[in-house]
Amino acid sequence: MFHCTVCGSGECRDETVDSVFKVDGEYALVNGVPAVVCRRCGERTFSRETTEKVRLLVHSDAEAPRSVPMRAYDFA
Fold first, then answer.
1. What does the pLDDT look like over 42-61, one tens digit per residue?
2. Cα separation of 24 and 70, whole Å?
3. How far apart are CA 16 and CA 9, in angstroms?
4. What does each C-alpha distance from 56 to 8, 37, 49, 68, 70 come to in angstroms?
């Protein structure tokens, strides 16, 4: 049973999301990641298997098939 760790909602939906991960000081965009998303607040949760697959992917020596420019801002 789903229970959101952010807002406490019990309602969720399965989605495929794009997510940015910080790896060794650099950002990596991973498209098409399966996630459970809270219907109330949008918090994304990844299964243990998905998390391990992303970890192996972003830490591999394989060349990323493409790169995208990203704007970066400092809040302060």
1. 999 999 999 999 999 999 98
2. 17
3. 20
4. 31, 23, 11, 21, 23
